[in-house]
Amino acid sequence: MSTKDFIEKDYYKVLGVPKDATEAEIKKAYRKLAREFHPDANKGNAKAEERFKEISEANDVLGDPKKRKEYDDARALFGSGGFRPGPGAGGGSFNFDLGDLFGGQGAGGQQAGGFGGGLGDVFGGLFNRGGAGTTRTQPRRGQDIESEVTLSFTEAIEGATVPLRMSSQAPCKACSGTGDKNGTPRVCPTCVGTGQVARGSGGGFSLTDPCPDCKGRGLIAEEPCEICKGSGRAKSSRTMQVRIPAGVSDGQRIRLRGKGAPGERGGPAGDLYVVVHVGAHPVFGRKGDNLTVTVPVTYPEAALGGEVRVPTLGGPPVTLKLPPGTPNGRTMRARGKGAVRKDGTRGDLLVTVEVSVPKDVSGKARDALEAYREATADDDPRAELFQAAKGA
Ligand SMILES: [Zn+2]
Ligand SMILES: [Zn+2]
């Protein structure tokens, strides 16, 4: 029995029942017809024998809910949608409802990319049942996609939702993913549309390879689509909102599961890898989980000690206690005021003090400084330096 025979046979008509007949109605119709056309009751009547075979075959399928569903699905796919012999004649050229076949991308259900899966199920179930050579078209995982995004310094610390424009391989729009210029591909005769060919079997497992003639697609273009060159896949770009977690750093590559290209035939989507570029901040720097900031202090603050207000990123300022005699360039730590870590805690803010020197000093301040110079005239800050220079 060929594919075409199977699709063309109307088992409902054979049994004389409506398409929505209940199991009981089918059983009743079958019994009545079987009795009528049974070979025992029609000895030597070839037509009756032929009819009896048809009735049995119809009952085999419609009498088994699982097989009946497969049959209905197959007919929905080919039958009512206008199955007809194609220009090539000899059968095997189908006219599909492309919306049904390829429109289901990303729906995640049975119908997503339903063609291969549907056929594999139907024919695997009905014609290879029990055999070792059952072939099925496997769902295929979508491609991983790599993209880039530039975040501001603050966005990188706090996390951000950013629009990301991505291009990926998707079903070609021009030919609805069929690869055929007119959208009317033929079912591949080599694999009968399953996209797979048996390699052999062992231990109850059947091994399959992608069909070499249709590259695993189950379809062959009569006339290749000019846009996708018959592959059925084309570059498509889309924009999606992507959540970048808090605490990413410049050059980091983050993986967003399932945000890549959609899968084929109900397969899962690929992953999206985003390479993050982070802009500079006018005040803060970054060392891993820690943020850095340089804070100017006056000479009296450094010498005598004091409290210094320090800005933080996205929060209120913190006050740091400067011990007396803090040297220029000393770094102190404001705990928990740094970048967000993976576990949600924060690194520290590393505060480096820089003693600022006034450009010009006048008035009271000048008097005070002059007095200070007088008072420290005997302290030579370079005495040690000269001593050491002599030593070596
Ligand atoms: Zn093939
Ligand atoms: Zn195309």
Structure overview:
Helices cover 28% and strands 24% of the residues. By secondary structure, it is α+β, with helices and mostly antiparallel strands. The strands form six sheets. A four-stranded mixed β-sheet has the order 10-11-15-14. A three-stranded mixed β-sheet has the order 1-9-8. Strands 2-7 form a two-stranded antiparallel sheet. A hairpin with a 2-residue loop joins strand 10 and strand 11. Bound molecules: zinc ion (ZN) (2 copies). One zinc ion is lined by residues 188, 190-191, 195, 211, 213-214, 218.
How would the blueprint of this fold be written?
Blueprint: H1 3-8, H2 11-15, H3 23-37, H4 46-62, H5 65-79, H6 98-102, H7 114-127, E1 145-151, H8 153-158, E2 160-171, E3 186-187, E4 196-202, E5 205-210, E6 219-220, E7 233-244, E8 253-256, E9 272-278, E10 285-287, E11 290-297, H9 299-304, E12 306-312, E13 315-322, E14 331-334, E15 349-355, H10 363-375, H11 383-391
Parallel strand pairs: 1-9, 11-15
Antiparallel strand pairs: 2-7, 3-6, 4-5, 8-9, 10-11, 12-13, 14-15
Helix pairs in contact: 3-4, 5-7
The chain binds zinc ion (ZN) (2 copies).
Residues 188, 190-191, 195, 211, 213-214, 218 line the site of one zinc ion.
